[in-house]
Design a protein that fits this description.
The complex is a heterodimer of chains A (284) and B (255). Chain A is of the alpha/beta class. Chain A has eight helices and ten strands. In chain A, the strands form two sheets. Chain A has a six-stranded mixed β-sheet, sandwiched between helices. Chain A has a four-stranded antiparallel β-sheet with strand order 2-1-4-5, covered by helices on one side. The longest helix of chain A has 23 residues. Chain A is globular. With 255 residues, chain B is mainly alpha-helical. Chain B folds into two domains: 37 residues; 198 residues, Orthogonal Bundle (MetI-like fold). In chain B, helix 3 crosses helix 9 and helix 9 runs antiparallel to helix 10. Chain B is globular, with a radius of gyration of 23 Å. The chains are: A alpha/beta (284), B mainly alpha (255). Chains A and B meet through strand 6 and helix 2 of A and helix 7 and helix 8 of B.
């Protein structure tokens, strides 16, 4: 892929929290490089703590990497780029004291959209996610799924080329996230946005992504990239196709060892379990 | 008070509250008129009522009320201005929070009124020493709540605002302030109460004028009924101030 085709170029990004030698020191990301093409939906998947969310926040300019660099549309990322990148967070990052409509309008105010255009664009974004009827509701009055739709509407109203989504459906139940995934696929096929999507769910990754980057356990780096060759918008029937299951199994195979490694960090828990098992035997 | 409670329950609890106060009044009346408790300890409520009318009609209270209210208003204004600015500045840095939050909590736990003699030596017996003490005591709950209000804003919200390009001013007005406001307002209410207590309290200990000073003076002259009338008067003033504060608070929340 040439630099012109890549919407996002990630070059040798490493990130650590805390200094080496400190108890809190964590090497989250190690020498990660990745090119993300214009108009593709790229999923990042990996065990907990592998640094996939950190990478997303580095792309979004919210975290400055320890080493390495990211360029977005040919410009180096040095901080938030509100005209190029919109963000959707795991939990609703809607302002609870504003209505859904006010939230969307406020986002555009931050971005610098002229006042006259804000209402109109907000209405269109709400229609795109099917929340027209809830414009005057406060986030606290909506279900989790509706809140994430509203957060998506706020990101869409910014009309950026790139959308970063950090486990946006992570806190939702399985059925809701499947339906939202279908909607997102439809939206994507219309908008031609570049989307980077962090997820825990194998099915979600295969269903949504054009390509999936599989991360290794901490310190995280990309282990393999898998292409999902299936046009958007994707139908629910894709989920029962042989291809879907083959890809899902392939992903699971890649992730399995990494997940074991990341679970190994919680070994003390397991020992405690064994202790109690022995005690119980003693009593018996 | 939960406004979603059914009306019947709210009326019922109000009724019980009213009955409780009426009951106290009745016990007071019976204690003085039937059991004949010494009027030096407990004056007759009817006498107190007459004295209260006399205090209000004669306008004798005006000078003392003006002094107490001016002292309190000055003390509270200083406490709010200092508490909010210092608290906000500290809340911007995790290091400063770590240094000052435990320090202020520790000082807040000390009965600062013990320093009143020192304040009187520095600022004299007049209003300045009351203002300084009220401002000092009111400062701590305000600064502590301002630190915790602005220091505990959900990071997802600030990240979201930053990713959308919010300027520092926009971040303050649209994210930090509304997020911190409920906790800061709770601090202002505590500061209000303790500043008022310290102003009136220090007037009873060392002062030349003011409602607290007047009450102690009447006690020393054994004018118990008039002293009680003044206490009722102060309670009424404080109730009015509290209602005003609640209205301002509701308005701020609504904004």
């Amino acid at each position: 892929m040439t630099a012109a085709e890549a919407a996002i170029r990630i070059c040798d990004v490493s990130h650590q929290f805390g200094e080496i030698g400190q108890a809190r020191h964590v090497q989250a990301l190690k020498d990660t490089s990745l090119d993300i093409a214009r108009g593709e939906l790229h999923c990042l998947i990996g065990p907990s703590g592998c640094g996939k969310s950190t990478l997303l926040s580095v792309i979004g300019g919210l975290t400055k990497p320890t080493t390495g660099s990211v360029t977005v549309s040919g410009k180096p990322v040095r901080g938030p780029m509100p005209h190029d990148i919109a963000y959707v967070f795991q939990e609703s990052a809607l302002f609870p004291w504003n209505t859904v409509l006010e939230n969307i309008v406020l986002g555009m105010k931050f971005q610098g959209v002229p006042k006259a255009k804000r209402r109109d664009r907000a209405r269109r974004a709400l229609e795109a996610v099917g929340l027209e009827a809830f414009a005057q509701h406060f986030p606290g009055q909506l279900s989790g799924g509706m809140r994430q739709r509203a957060a998506l509407a706020r990101a869409l109203s910014l009309e950026t080329d790139i959308l970063l989504m950090d486990e946006p459906f992570g806190a939702l139940d399985e059925q809701t996230r499947m339906v939202l995934g279908e909607d997102l696929s439809v939206l994507l096929s219309r908008s031609h946005k570049t989307i980077v999507f962090v997820t825990h769910s194998l099915g979600e990754a295969v269903f949504l992504a054009d390509r999936v980057a599989v991360f290794s356990a901490r310190p995280g780096t990309i282990k393999q990239i898998i292409a999902v060759d299936e046009p958007h918008p994707r139908k629910p029937s894709f989920m029962t196709a042989l291809k879907f299951h083959a890809l899902r199994d392939q992903l699971y195979g890649l992730l399995h060892d990494e997940i074991r490694k990341s679970i190994a960090e919680t070994a003390p828990l397991r020992r405690r379990y064994d202790d109690t098992a022995e005690k119980n035997e003693g009593v018996a | 008070m939960n406004s979603r409670e059914p009306l019947a329950i709210r009326i019922a609890s109000r009724g019980v509250q009213a009955f409780f106060l009426l009951g106290l009044l009745l016990v007071w009346f019976v204690a003085t008129n039937v059991w004949h408790i010494s009027t030096i300890l407990l004056p007759n409520p009817l006498n107190v009522w007459q004295q209260l009318i006399d205090v209000v009609r004669s306008g004798e209270f005006v000078g003392d009320l003006r002094i107490t209210l001016t002292e309190f208003a000055s003390a509270f204004t200083i406490a709010v201005a200092l508490g909010v600015t210092v608290g906000y500045s500290i809340s911007r840095s995790r290091y400063l929070i770590k240094v000052f939050e435990p320090l202020f909590s520790a000082i807040y736990a000390i009965p600062i009124i013990l320093f009143l003699p020192l304040y009187v030596m520095i600022w004299g017996l007049g209003p300045p020493s009351k203002i300084a003490l009220g401002a000092t005591i009111g400062f701590f709950p305000i600064v502590l709540n301002t630190i915790s209000g602005f220091g505990s804003v959900d990071r997802t919200l600030t990240s979201a605002a930053r990713s959308m390009g919010a300027s520092d001013m926009q971040m303050f007005w649209h994210v930090l302030l509304p997020a911190a406001l409920p906790i800061v307002l709770a601090g202002l209410r505590m500061g209000f109460t303790v500043a008022l207590l310290s102003v009136i309290g220090s007037e009873t200990i060392a002062a030349l004028a003011g409602l607290g000073h007047r009450i102690v003076n009447l006690a020393e002259n054994m004018e118990m009924a008039r002293m009680f009338a003044y206490i009722v008067f102060v309670v009424a003033i404080v109730a009015v101030l509290n209602v005003a504060l609640t209205m301002i608070e509701a308005y701020a929340r609504w904004q």
